[in-house]
Structures
1.
Amino acid sequence: MTITMYGADWCGDCRRAKAWFDERRIAFDYVDLVQNPDETERVLERNDGVKKIPVIVFPDDSHLVEPSNDELAAHVLALADVGISLANLGTGTADHDPAVIENPHLRRFELLRHGEVVSFATYTQNEHAIVVPHVETKPEHRGHGFAAELMEGMLAILRSDGRTIKPLCPFAADHIRDNAQHQDLVTG
């Protein structure tokens, strides 16, 4: 079970999608259509003859064409809901390589392990930033540093999307205060 992305290095949407998967440590096979022009036929088949990239094919044979970051997050979540965990596709094992995704439908960031949400941060959004009032780890998963892993993944997503954060949750505020590399993401 793999994810395959068909794209080209000159394509901004392809670079953004690659970064989205890389930041969440979700492994994928990348097919550069400039270096492998014969693979263009697969793109055309998926797109009903239209030349649009990236085309991302998931383990269930579903695919997305030129997806936004929100569309990628929603699709990964939908796959997890039907038992297809992309966290298991990351480098290493899922126990050592969790995935952080944004779930815009529930307005929260989630740390997934074996497809299960073990930690999450709820948020609201205004014109300036996301506001994080609460970070929680499920009781049976506490004491393993999962909330800190969630924060690191969430902050990487925010940085890549050019967003800022207003951490109302004491844990979130302390994590950012204790990690100077993230302090530029904080807004008042």
2.
Amino acid sequence: MAARASNPLLDLDARPVIAHRGASAAAPENTLAAFELAAGQGADAFELDVRVSADGAPVVIHDAMLERTTDGKGPVRGQTLVDLRLLDAGAGFSPDGGATFPYRGQGLRLTTLGEVLWAFPRMPMLVEVKEPEAQEAVRRVLVQEGAVERCVVASELQEALEAFRDPPFARAASAPEIAQLYRGVLLRRRAAALPYQLLSVPTRRFVAAARALGCPVHVWTVNEPATARRLWARGVAGMVTNVPEAMLKIRPPPPLPLNR
């Protein structure tokens, strides 16, 4: 598939630095505070996670349970959006291993996918659908917000991507699809046209095979500069990172056009 110039997530040579749940090393993950910090640091795109509330709202949160990142208890799907709004989304964040909790009690709340899209109207986003039940809500919001072209939908679960099989949606490969292509690479089999537009397994042969098919490879979760340099040298496109500011400082320039 040809790269879409308007979306660096789908460009083989753009080398985007993608803020993993925002600048999540310095602010509570998947919150507006983390996304605002990442944008201010110059991140090229966001990665975020979506689950659904009891009343079907697409809530930006990674875990199925509330305990790790909020002061709530129980499953996300067990509470309505109104109830989830009452929780402290900064309660669990500690940048120093539990010595301090600088965002606790500061009024930071869980947010919805639509609110993130609205707050950052030009930011490309990698939207991770964490459960099949969330896909229709994600699909609806992407269309309503006019955000389809700047978003790539991802999930480890094949069944969570069924709503995004056809254009105009772009999606990443699921875990079973990655495994299938990886086996083909090991056996040196030529892959046919791919039903997805993005991959994330960084062996040299795998990256080369993906690039030959016009499919950029992005890698989770890279926070060490030495690792990032090695992966970029292999031909990896994007780095999904908790420390976008650090990755931006060491990112190599994009390759020159062949006709230059």
3.
Amino acid sequence: MDIASVDAKVVAEVQDEVVQLLVDLIKIDTSNPPGNETQAALFLDRWFKARGLEGQLVGEPEHRQNFILRLEGTRPGPTLLLLAHMDVVPAEPASWSVPPFDGVIKDDHVWGRGAGDIKNLVAAHAVAVSRLAAAGRDFAGTVIYAATADEEEGTDCGASWLVQNRPDLVRSDYLLNEGGGEFDILRGERVYELNTGEKGTAQFRITVHGEAGHASVPLHKGNAVVAAAQIVQALYEHQTEAHMEHLPADYVRLLVDDAGLSERLLKPETARAALADLHERDDATARLLEPHYGITFSPTIVHSSSEAINVFPEQVVVTVDCRTLAGRGEDEVRVEVERALAGIDAPWELEFLGSIMGNASADPSPFSAAIDRVMERCVPGSRTVSLHCVGFTDSNWFRAAFPDLVAYGYGPYIEEDVSVTSEQFHNHNERIHVKDLTFQAVFAEELVKELLA
């Protein structure tokens, strides 16, 4: 599909520039850990200086710095922050059909680690800012370009460092980040996902206590391993309370063509049973919807206090990845854990490993209205649906630091739908279609001109 309302010559110019920039960024290995994002930040600094624009490197430690550039418009107005992270998850070259850090262009795609998560937006936003500057900065307000470190691990040297240590550099009214923009064709309609908020994390571990002893004599009561297995099963089977305040009814009805089933999915008292039915008939759609209904428990690690095969351990630790709806935290999680484990006849203790409260931005807003107008021009007849991201992005840090900020995740695709693009993230043979990459750059430029008109 081609981009409507944008001159073909302009699209070709953008494609040439953004493809080359993404290739160059992929060649800089910023696998996290260890990161080494400063090498990419230095490259961006040189790239912008060649176009007459001055940014700065900030952050700690020295090898993990962020790149920030400020572009002032010709008139006063609000500030839009274009955000994307430079670090990528590690890649195992043996699993790839092309070298993951060569930036190969093949079959109308750019291949390499970071091509879809999310050096594509690092490149797209950079090209948009460069073009806005070259065109005379004819907008009202300020555009901040931020290419950040440490999103994949998310410890302390990327977005979280910036909002704590240099809020003056990144404070804004609006923020555009990763996390949305994929589309699906639902009943003949092209539907895009706009991430207006995101779930939080409340990861925890449960320590199960048992009776130590020699395993040559079966222990029918007090075996911590057996109790831990029961706990894993109980958490796996537990149906947490359904909450649907962030799940648009129209979206559910578009996804599920069975009217009776879709209405059951929209009622708290029937939603869990309806999800079970949906898993039976359409597992992919059920997997898409289920995380939006509330707290999720995913047991991921089990450790025993003993390494000896012939010894009953005194303790077994079960570690659980838990995700919470925006605005809900450890208190709600504890209640659900106690409900899930009410039938476990063994002593256990719950310890949270670190929680991040999920948050959300105002919607609708002037920002979402501007996105809708740009999309209607570029992809006529498409629809954008507001959802919360079920993972985690750096938008969370910014919303928490700047409560009045409106932060959305949106980097729209135009050629390949979600069934293709969703398979690229953190996978081998990661790649992005050149038309999608080009559209992301065109969209960012058009959004600035629309929002900061």
4.
Amino acid sequence: MPTIVSIQAGRPQAFDYERPADGKSRQWTTAFYKTPITGSVRVGELGVAGDEQADRKNHGGIDKAVLAYAAEHYAYWRPHLALPDMPFGGFGENLTIAGLDESGVCIGDQWQAGQVLFEVSQPRQPCWKMGRRWQIPELPKQVIKNGKSGWYLRVLNEGELAAGQAIRLVSRSHPAWTVARASQLLYHEPDNLAGLEELANVPELSRAWREELLERIARRAG
């Protein structure tokens, strides 16, 4: 059975970085750096207690309350990126889950772990902060290419959560729309209007993704 092997949270922090263009030092603020939580933690409508977002426009909110990531992906990334000590949480996720990945999770799925009931809302869209965190600017492009993105969860029922708990599937309304397929459609099938329309009509899809899909459909149709 799939298991939550680690839970992470982080608050916005300022970090220095060097701009390749001029070699000058700059600062950026991010909550991408997550640290593991020992013991149980409260998970509410807006996410894991103690977890915050620096960019509230593109991160957080009800549709993206919790970010989940497959524990098995680290076996690929650590040697591939020459980062053997990359910890769980290295991709900014709140929940690192063993036994699940993007091909086994569908939009609209409801998953139960202890008291907490989650609903899958969308794939994670990798952004530049991922690359800056590991000083690998092309990392987001690699994630888009191989689909090891992670997925966002709503919290339908609040409660306590702890690492080591099993997470089980409660219901699946859209078995055709795995997170992997949704990502494939968005990034690699720009002319698949029928697919875009079908995914946009999935009720449980996040508002942000639906709006993006509808905008893309309108552009292609025009």
